[in-house]
Task: structure prediction
Amino acid sequence: MSYVLSWEKAVEENVQLIGGKGKNIAKLNQKGFRIPEGGIFTTEAYIKFIRHNNLIPLIQKAQDLSIDVLTSDNSLVILENIQKAILQGDFPEYLKEELGLLLLNYNLLDSPLAVRSSATAEDSEKYSFAGIHETILNVIGLEELIESIKKCFASVWSLRAISYRRKMKIEDSQLLPAIVIMRLIDTQSSGVAFTCNPISGQKDRLLIHANFGLGETLVSGTVDPDEYEVSYDSLQPTLINKRIGRKEEVLKRDKQSGKLKVTKDVLNKDIQVLDTFQIYNLSTQILRIFESIGNVETHQDIEWVWDGKEFFIVQTRPITVINENNYPELNKDTQVWSNANFKDVMPNVQSFLSWSIIKGPLEQMILTPLKLAGYPILKGLSHTKTYNGRAYMNLSALQWEMYDAFNLDPEVFNNSLGGHQPKINYPDNEHRSINKQVKRLRRKTNLLIKMLGVSLRSSGLFKQKITLAQNLRMMKLTNLGVNDLIKLFNLYYKELIEYTPKAQALNTLSGFYFTVLETKFNKKYGSKSQEFLNNLLLDKGNIVSALQGTELKRLAQVAQKDKMAIDFFHSEKDLLHWNQILNDDSIFKKEFKKYLHDFGHRGTYELDISNPRWREDATYLLSIIKQYLTTPPRDKNDIEMTKRELKKDFSVASSLFIKWSLKRTVQGFENREMAKSVLAHLLESIRILILEISNRLLKRGLLNNPNEIFYLGWFEILSLLKNEWNGEGLQVILKERIKMKEFYEDSPYPNLLENNMPKFTNQEASITSGGKKLKGIGVAAGKITGTCKIVHHPMEAVHLKETDILVTHSTDPSWTPIFLRVGGVIMETGGYLSHGAIVAREYGIPAVVNVPGVMKYLKDGQIISIDGNQGFLLIKEK
Result:
């Protein structure tokens, strides 16, 4: 067994052998970060030393000490005796030899070293041990190294160390010290950095502390350092705040004497430690650590040094305490996160790159109504995160904010999301507060005015963004230099960030108009109001996502008259190569190209940029057309419905108001779906730029295939593209991320997280004379009986028939063509305003959504009936 491990060998070992600090440093080295030369003296070496000096009986006395007696004279004597025995202990020769070889192999025999404790529980997500164990600097030669190691061993038995263990309920036997040994960098400056702001809790801010010289003055808290706050919500590190500290002391190694020397220079208080360029470079490295070590989930506390030429990283560990802000009204409630709505549009495990890019815009979209209304959102409160790679929203916070801002009942808010979640507790006497009512009315007014403003300008907005996307597709990106390509990416990402709140404003406005109608009908018709609304909204509007499906139906009719197309579809040729196989004089080919011009920016689960767009791979579309040729899709359902005459039930004024609201609701649905389509245009632009970067990295031999780039984070990609990272450790990262995604895909997908614990929502079927009954929300009118077909991906659904009822977790626009083939739709999630509901109404297909657990409850091939009017399904008994 080796008792001294290089960084390369240490990374293969577990924390129990090399300690938390050692493991983190070995990971940094493995993943290509600049680490000073050195290695790790293992916990096994500590055990050998203790046994060699027969110290176990003495140590056992300390293990019996409780926290209540630690400061007693007897306890202090026991601890002092252990430390003294360790410091005076004999060091086994075989351990000396291994340490000597480490110094020799890395040319460190005469170099100053930093010797740091690396205990087994140290620098973990739960325990930091910051400042608890010994760190010794400026150690030169083997003999000084041995004495320093013994001091680190002894520090495990100091009063502060054992007190910390007792407080944190860590058994003495659970904590063994390894020792990190590394070259002491001749620093110009050093400091610590955090990948978030642990004080404010803001997750899109970096915090950097810096002082001249070695970082011990800063870590020990004896100086007031420079502080730099860096924003990275736009994927560009930007210095937003800086405070020049007094920097009362500087610790440096004196070149003449070789000793560490503390100097006090009053001029330091006026000098900035790092310039803007250095702050940018350090920030990029810090964010790369957050991606490579923290996987964009676990924020890191990092120690860095600057030698005048480059930055070295000497430590990283999880931040154990972040100020997780929350509204006081929610402190006693269970913290609930939900996949409602997200499961409707992005149910799959998100690619690593896609989540790092889409998280910021997604957070902006969720908060848009509150921001437009001028509501004071709590700083540092996260509203989105992933669990097992899938997206969740902070339901507790959003319920409170919507209630506090607009007096929106949490249950009503839940229904609009279309998930299955509990509602928060909220005060029921606030209606008495005139001040509260006035504030809420002002916010509602502000929100409505601003949403109407976006709606009035929506045509120009859509046209501008579509033109922007079309311009990118016509660019010769291969002619651009690296810096110009990065600038272009930043430009399009900025467009994405600026557009998403506007898209959400249109989404919210469509919900507002619908709520006006719903409220009016609820008062008049009660439980039958949804049925009446469904009837009124049937086959209304020009929904762009519905047009995608009807156009495919038309293309099938074009193909029927094109012999070349018929031969192609009847052959066994690969649909992917349609453009090469069909001649240019094929009418179908010309029409299909027009279709791709209009809709080729869409794709299956298009919010994840790792998924190809139809323009790149039209196999799915051509499979549907091929099936249409065999079994033509039906026309829109002509369902017999009883429509009430508005004049009979409402006054003339009310009837006119309802007709006006109905028109606005339909326009809202049109704008909502068009806004999604335009968002898909911008996401396609981001994908095009990412693939151009991928091709460049591929040519440099850094990637094995273009799709590997989607397993990286943006700052990892940026460092590779700009040659700031040579790719060392890249394959390790890719292998880890691929394995991680596979694990997430095989993991359960809970509907809720309650205090970070997964919770699954299901329902028990009620027994009726017609069969077992499951309840949901009826979103598209009509009744139908058919064969249950459980589908997880739209490609599985291309062979469905009119007598089939599609049962799935959720649908996005890529599912639209399937709707023309089936008799009805059932979804596990969704609400009245979800994509599937809008398209089902447009096509006249009965649909029931928000049926918890339906995918597990039903079996493929069962005969089921659905009632889109009343919102339930019946499982027919055999």
